[in-house]
Amino acid sequence: MRRAITFLLILFLAAPLFGQKHRVAVMDFNYGTVQSSVAAIFGSDQDVGKGIVDLLIDRLVNDGTYRVIERQALDKIMAEQNFSNSNRADPNSAAKIGKLLGVDTIIVGDITQFGRDDHNTNVGGMGSTLGKYGLGGVGLHKSKAVVAVTARMVDVNTGEILASVSGTGESARSGTNLLGGGGSGWSSGAGHLDMGSSNFGQTILGEAVKQAVTQLAGGLEADAPKLGVAAAPAAVPVSGLVADASSSDIIINVGSSAGVHVGDKLDVTRVTRVIKDPATGKPLRSIETKLGQLTITSVDSGSAVGTFSGSGTIKVGDTVKTP
Fold first, then answer.
1. Could you tell me the end-to-end alpha-carbon distance of the chain, in angstroms, rounded to an integer?
2. Is the whole-model pTM more than 0.70?
3. At what angle do helices 204-222 and 48-63 cross, to 10 degrees?
4. Which of 109, 227, 237, 323 could lock onto 29 through a cystine, CB 3.0 to 4.6 A?
């Protein structure tokens, strides 16, 4: 009985620690190693790194082990920082992006296998040895699809790799076409591969992708304790001014160096009256009117961009601050 009470007391005291989840972002995986095979399978280059990460994010969000930053915010930061595909797996680049997003951990990864499990495939009458990255849609015998991915969890403050996880998938079925057997068929737009579609999921390649992502996500979720106890976000008061209000993207004159993060919600106010000392004429108090709220969508060191919602009309010089 005494042991049970002691155990419950420990759980009670530790509950606040368990309740704080790590805030993570997932960068599109690098697929340079298998790019030629991907182009041969689909008939054109397809961003399989983005496709696999889309599936991974869905799995992590649904599991609930981590707080996952929305994809749109990450894409916007990547574009503004002029990050190329070659930066996808670089821990130092990832740490920089993570700081701008206000996350404590960022996940980077590589696709190391994507194709057939056979070693020799006949392509257009010409022999070609392609290892385990063989071509799809052609060949003389049936083969299974194999997909392998690796992921690393990077501390955004130190650039240290906190955990490394792998996931491998192999289709249960085999065939002469990696994209065959997908119900009513499968197609993709130029460079855009929707791995979440039911048609792709029913192909033998889709089977292997799903299995690899499931295994990878399970490993990332299991490695959450390696990240340590997630610290509560520091409450940094933010105060700045609207610098540009000429479009729907409102720009303010404070950024990450002042504690602004993507996803922050700041009050937008305007001084409507100044109370002065009747004896000296010195200002005693400013009366402010709240116009609405600014939701931050993009941040750099000295400025930030957000979308405004409210009944008032925002203009240059209005104040933005922590509620």
1. 47
2. no
3. 50
4. 109
What is the Cα–Cα distance from 287 to 169, expressed in whole angstroms? 62
Asked whether 300 and 265 are in contact (CB, 8 A), the reply is no
The CA distance from 229 to 21, in Å, is 8
pLDDT digits (tens, 9 = 90+) for 83-118: 766 667 677 777 878 877 778 889 999 999 998 886
Decide if 241 contacts 269 (C-beta within 8 A). no
Rounded CA separation 235/232 (Å): 9
Residue for token digits 């295994």? 215
In the numeric block, the tokens 């409102």 are attached to 250
Residue 2 lies in a domain: no
Residue count (the chain)? 323
Residue 176 and residue 296 in one domain: no
In a shared domain, residues 109 and 255: no
Range of the domain at 310: 239-321
